[in-house]
Amino acid sequence: MKVSGFEVFVVGTPPPHFGGRYWIFVKLETDSGVTGIGEIYSLPFHPSAVEGLIADVCERMVVGSDPFRIEQLWRRVYSRGYSQRPDPSLLAVLSGIEMACWDIIGKELGRPVYDLLGGRVHEALRSYTYLYPKPGEDEQVYRDPDLAAERAAECVAQGFTAVKFDPAGPYSAFDPRQLSLEALDRCALFMKRLREAVGSSCDLLFGTHGQMTPAGAIRLAKRIEPYDPLWFEEPTPPEMPTAMGQVARGTSIPVASGERLTSKYEFAALLRAEAAAILQMNLGKVGGILEAKKIAGMAETFYAQIAPHLYCGPVVGAANIQISACSPNFLILESIQTWGGFHAEILKQPIRWENGHVLPPEAPGLGVELDEAVARAHPYDGDALHLEMIERPA
User: Fold this and answer.
1) Read out DSSP for 113-171?
2) Within a domain: residue 382?
3) Which residues are marked as active site?
4) pLDDT tens profile 322-341
5) Does any domain span residue 390?
6) Backbone angles phi, psi at 46, to 5 degrees
7) The whole model's pTM is what?
8) Are both 187 and 264 inside the same structural domain?
9) Secondary structure (3-state) at 134
């Protein structure tokens, strides 16, 4: 079997754009007629440029290759152009391609990917969601602790046993910083109101995006410790794991991090620095499924757990499900609400979510099929990137 061709889909998401403004999928075709789908997460370029990057890698390295030889393909792409280091753009492109190869392998063998990586050890995967505004609402839920508490209670009623929120304020190209006293008070009030609303029936996941210095993050952690959050997410920027380690040693709250990291090498640095007890690799950026499995294995030796990150489309979601199902140290899976809306519409069969859990599919490969007609009907025609920081000091 050889890869014979590829196709890229840049899909604009309709309002309310949960999961980002657009999603980028790559389909690999083989000479035997089997196809595979992958997803590429959040490159710092407009998708029109990303299409060219994907084409360059596929034309030079992928077409004509054996999709079963994932280790060989991974090393060749990782080292191309004499780079041989964790480049987030190249690793994101490689992630989508590698994911599509696993989809092909699973379909060819008639097995889910998790069966090819050690077998399923979790029958159902506990999941959480961000607190999102309802249709027609503005983003007040991100600023109003009483409204956020109301939304959290509604999520518990749906079956969720964990919710995430980020009241710390904007993240800036000029971070890290010290949060203002106003922001610290708001964060503590969010925690208080949400804990009052859900009691001990629901874990609270405190999200940040690297806004703070280590000293500033520890100040915030002291404010929210009494409410026993399950984690304190990415309190400092991702490039200095030793700084995040300072935060981890300065609080009783488990630190979670990893959505902006790529490859086993960057996660090894995070573990060596004792910077995070919970690893949040995004499979559309980290280097793909096998790389995520290696990271999960490393994490086991540190008694760390994995909670795969998702703020993109359902193909990364499907890959997250596969790696979670076969990893003994899986903790919790990020969902975008209950996998309805456009996340369901763009798949031929939606991801199954029941009573707070995602159910791993038994279909071969990734277990999902992209509805290409829906993908083609929603081209992205905007200028903005998938995610952006404010470009002035906060």
Assistant:
1) HHHHTT----SSEEEEEE-PPPTT--SGGGT-HHHHHHHHHHHHHHT-SEEEE--S---
2) no
3) 209, 309
4) 999 999 999 999 999 999 99
5) no
6) -60, 145
7) 0.97
8) yes
9) coil
Residue 64 tokens, joined: 């004509």
Structure confidence by residue, pLDDT tens digits, 21-53: 999 999 999 999 999 999 999 999 999 999 999
Distance of CA 271 to the CA centre of its chain: 19
99 and 169 within one domain? no
Element containing residue 295 per DSSP (H, E): helix 289-301
The last residue of a domain, from among 77, 110, 143 = 110
d(CA 164, CA 237): 19
Distance CA 136, CA 210 (A): 30
Residue 273: which residues within 8 A CB-CB, separation 6 or more? Answer: 241, 242, 244, 245
User: d(Cα 6, Cα 254) in Å, to the nearest integer?
Assistant: 42
Give the integer Cα–Cα distance in Å for 151 and 153.
Answer: 5
168 with 196, same domain: the answer is yes
Q: To 10 degrees, what angle do helices 145-158 and 181-198 make?
A: 30
How many other C-beta atoms are found inside a 10 Å radius of the C-beta of residue 201? 10
Burial of 101 (0-12, 13-18, 19+ CB in 10 A): buried
Query: How far is the C-alpha of 108 from the C-alpha of 1, rounded, in Å?
Result: 10
Distance separating alpha carbons of residues 43 and 385, to the nearest angstrom: 8
Beta strands in 236-303 (DSSP E): 255-257, 278-279
Domain span at residue 70? 3-110
Instruction: Look at the chain and report how many structural domains it folds into.
Output: 2
Q: Decide: 3 and 68 in contact? Cβ < 8 Å.
A: no
